[in-house]
Amino acid sequence: MRGLLKSIFVLCGLAAFGLASATPASAGCELIKATNSAESPQAAARASQASAAEVAKQVQRKRGWGYVSMRARKVEPDPFWKAVRPVVPKEILIKPDIVTRKTYTQCWPGVVVPYVCTSGAVACGN
Fold first, then answer.
1. By residue range, what is the domain housing residue 66?
2. Please, which pLDDT band fits residue 26 given cuts at 50, 70 and 90?
3. Is 19 inside a domain boundary?
4. Domain membership flag for residue 4
5. Contact in structure between 103 and 52 (CB atoms under 8 Å)
6. Buried residues in 72-88 as b, exposed as e (16+ CB within 10 A)
7. Going by DSSP bridges, is the β-strand pair 68-72/115-125 parallel, antiparallel, or unpaired?
8. What is the SS3 assignment for the chain?
9. According to the UniProt entry, where is the signal peptide (predicted)?
10. How many distinct structural domains can be found in the chain?
C-alpha cells in the first residue's frame, strides 16, 4: 500500500512538472525600438511611441500571442540617415528623456529632418 501511494505521489509530481513546463514556444519577450521624425521634439516623440506600439502589435501577430504588454527600455538612438550620422552623439540628445510606463524615448536634432526620436520597449506576451 505504501509503495502504491509513493508511486501515485511521484506520478502526480511528474504530471504537475510537465504541465508547468508546457508553455508555448512562442511565449516570452522581445526588445523593440522605433524611430520617427517630426517638426518638433514632442511630435517626433509621439510618433516614435506610436510606432513602437505598432511594432509590439506586429510582434504579437508574428509570435501568435493572445496578448502583448510593453514596458519601457532604454535603447541606443537609431538615426535614419546612417550615411550622414552613423551614431547619435550623447551631447546632442535633448534632455530630459521621455519615460512612460510603455516606452523610453530619446530625441535629438536631425540632420535631414528637424527632430528625430527613438523609443524603446520590451514587448512580452503569450
1. 25-125
2. low
3. no
4. no
5. yes
6. bbebebbbbeeeebeeb
7. antiparallel
8. CHHHHHHHHHHHHHHHHHHHCCCCCCCEEEEEEEEEEECCHHHHHHHHHHHHHHHHHHHHHHHCCCCEEEEECCCCCCCCCCCCCCCCCHHHCEEEEEECCCCEEEEEECCCCCEEEEEEEEEEEC
9. 1-27
10. 1
**Residue 108 is placed in which grid cell?**
535629438
Contact yes or no for 79/87 (Cβ under 8 A): yes
Give the pLDDT confidence of 28-74 residue by residue, as tens digits: 999 999 999 999 999 999 999 999 999 999 999 999 999 999 999 99
Q: What is the pLDDT of residues 69-82, one digit of tens each?
A: 999 999 999 998 88
Report d(CA 81, CA 75) in Å as an integer: 18
- Residue 17 inside a domain? The answer is no
First vs last Cα of the chain: how many Å apart? 43
Whether the CB-CB separation of 97 and 104 falls below 8 Å is answered with yes
Neighbours of 114 (CB within 10 A): 13
